[in-house]
Amino acid sequence: MAKFFHHPVTLFILRTLLYTAIILALVYLYSYRGVTNSHFIYNEF
Predict the structure, then answer these.
(1) What is the DSSP letter of 34?
(2) What letters, b where the CB count within 10 A reaches 16 and e where it falls short, cover 5-38?
(3) What is the pLDDT of residue 11?
(4) Residue 13 falls in which region: left (phi positive, over 0), alpha (psi -120 to 50) or beta
């Protein structure tokens, strides 16, 4: 089992899945907040 996780292809796939999950989580959180709903200090002027 340890040999399986030290294989370069397995490491590449696991890292790709991890980074994809992080990017999707960031995109979800960014879209959940909403770009147009942010309060910028100079919006009132």
Answers:
(1) -
(2) eeeeeeeeeeeeeeeeeeeeeeeeeeeeeeeeee
(3) 93
(4) alpha
**Token code pair at residue 6:** 């030290």
pTM of the complete model: 0.61
H helices of 1-45, in order, are 2-5, 8-33
* 4-42 pLDDT per residue, tens: 778 999 999 999 999 999 999 988 887 766 555 555 556
Mapping DSSP to helix (H, G, I), strand (E, B) and coil, where does residue 12 land? helix
- Amino acid, res. 16: T
